[in-house]
Amino acid sequence: MVIGQIFPIHRLGHEKGKGYKSFITRKTLAKRFMGDLKNRKISPEQYFVQNVEAAKTLYDPRAQTVYTEFSAEEALINQHISQILEYLNCRVPVFWGAGRKEAALVNASSNNIPLAIVIDIEKAYVKDMIDRIDLSKRSRVKSLIALFQSFSEDEQKKYLQQMLDGKPAFHACLGTTIGNFNQHELFMIFRDTMQVGDYLLLGFQLEKDPEKILQEYRDDRLIEDIVKLPFLAALEDKGVGLHSWKYNYDEHQVEYWFTFTADYESKDSALVFRSGDAIEVFRSKKYRVEQLRSELENHGLQYVMHVAKEDHCLLLLERV
User: Fold this and answer.
1) In Å, how far are 9, 56, 229, 241, 313 from 222, measured between CA atoms?
2) Would you place residue 222 in the very low, low, confident or very high pLDDT band (cuts 50, 70, 90)?
3) What is the rounded CA–CA span in Å between residue 166 and residue 233?
4) What is the spatial distance between Cα 176 and Cα 48, in angstroms, rounded to a whole number?
């Protein structure tokens, strides 16, 4: 099957540039997408590289569900910035994901920090983050265009360690990002890329009434624009299947599914689906602090502190 027929290759922005190091190619992402379709489960990087323009609306108030999550987390950061800087200002910040909050932390950080590292799958988000950073601090930002999952591999891990050169680090993964990933896999990556004594700041959404949060996602058309992938959207337009939101009570997460309502087979038979087959397109896990704290401690990440407001939480951990 021609990859370009299912994967919008032209939308990606991975051209080489000063301050950027890329560990991923368009071809690799396209192959991963084909594998995801066959495995009936889409990896979280796909909607961020295939729907770049839609994803840029994350801070748009019209994207009610996501905007509420992001703005509430941002308010928590601003409210507790002095506490965060106590741990950040003597370390190299390593941001797992690029955005407005990460830029704000760079702007608030000490002028004595010579380096800030950003890891993201899409260069466009890194560019947007850098544009928000004070001119005097932009030159310190170095970015790695890579899958988070790839840091389980030696090459990427060693490259990050070389950039840090033994310096203590302050890792941050914000924007409820952790809820989109396989928990054990991501927490192992944090553990294995951090040195003993490094800190990790996580932002996530707390559990609340499942029906309420499910309705919030159903009502938010912009979040649907972000996670609805072009290939599956085209199949829906052809009457081959339907998208729907669900709440997984066992996993405590909101999920977005594509269910085939008719048989489908690509021309070369590379993709074959039967009516009733379903693909999990998106997931967003919600947490209880004590449960998450216990799971992270099992991965060598010890609780330091947390702050919460309404449905949102920031959790600080130390690698031990």
Assistant:
1) 22, 10, 13, 20, 23
2) confident
3) 46
4) 14
Helices 183-193, 289-297: inter-axial angle, 10-degree rounding: 50
Domains, the chain, in order of start with CATH, read 59-207+287-319 (3.40.50.150)
List, for residues 73-112, the tens digit of each pLDDT value: 889 999 999 999 999 998 999 999 999 899 999 999 998 8
Structural contact between residues 199 and 19, judged by C-beta atoms closer than 8 angstroms: no
pLDDT of residue 299: 97
222 SS3 class: helix
Beta strands in the chain (DSSP E): 20-22, 92-96, 116-120, 141-145, 169-173, 199-205, 241-248, 253-260, 264-265, 272-273, 278-285, 301-309, 312-319
User: Mind listing the pLDDT tens digit for each residue in 251-264?
Assistant: 999 999 999 999 99
